[in-house]
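Long-time lurker, first post. I've been practising inverse folding by hand and with some scripts of my own, and I keep getting stuck on stretches where the structure tokens seem ambiguous. Below is the full token string for one chain I'm working on. Before anyone asks, I'm not after the true native sequence, just a reasonable design that respects the backbone. If someone could post their per-position residues I'd love to compare against what I wrote down in my notebook.
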């Protein structure tokens, strides 16, 4: 029986995390949109940004001591719940390791972190076409939020709003 281990990412894991980010983006048909670099991830995960600590945390999933997946997450806040939550930005398991319980182990550890920190929610987004992921999340008891639509300001749209051009 393979040994699964979930541990917090360290600065030495940043190249691995970036590799996993790129593999996930390739799976999601968006590799051309990845602009993150190792220094950017190092700063976000382990630096002090805007006078605060790291912006995002990472978990590394190992099978028999070999890294085979990761989860990146950060704190959110819900005014309705009156408590923080965790937002799962990325969850990825290498193709050869899928179906062996590593994804579930990563989510279990994330849920434990949420409970330990008094979080009221763990949330994430999934691409509508990603049926294997949707089926996986449904089996865990996660529920889609059909009544919400995500919006995003990015690139020139952020600039236009910030500068009052719209």
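-- Answer (accepted) --
I ran through it position by position. Result:
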């Amino acid at each position: 029986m393979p040994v699964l281990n979930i541990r917090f990412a360290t600065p030495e894991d940043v190249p691995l995390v970036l590799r996993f980010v790129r593999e996930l983006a390739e799976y999601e048909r968006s590799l051309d949109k990845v602009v993150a670099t190792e220094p950017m991830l190092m700063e976000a995960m382990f630096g002090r940004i805007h006078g605060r600590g790291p912006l995002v945390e990472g978990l590394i999933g190992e099978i028999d001591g070999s890294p085979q997946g990761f989860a990146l997450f950060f704190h959110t806040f819900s005014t309705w719940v009156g408590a923080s939550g965790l937002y799962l930005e990325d969850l990825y398991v290498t193709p050869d390791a899928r179906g062996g319980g590593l994804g579930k182990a990563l989510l279990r550890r994330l849920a434990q972190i949420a409970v330990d920190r008094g979080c009221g929610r763990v949330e994430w987004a999934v691409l509508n076409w990603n049926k294997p992921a949707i089926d996986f999340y449904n089996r865990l008891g996660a529920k889609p939020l059909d009544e919400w639509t995500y919006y995003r300001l990015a690139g020139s749209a952020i600039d236009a709003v910030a500068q009052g051009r719209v």
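A couple of notes from the structure itself: The beta strands are 4-8, 57-63, 66-78, 83-93, 122-124. The first strand starts at residue 4 and ends at 8. Happy to go over any region you disagree with.
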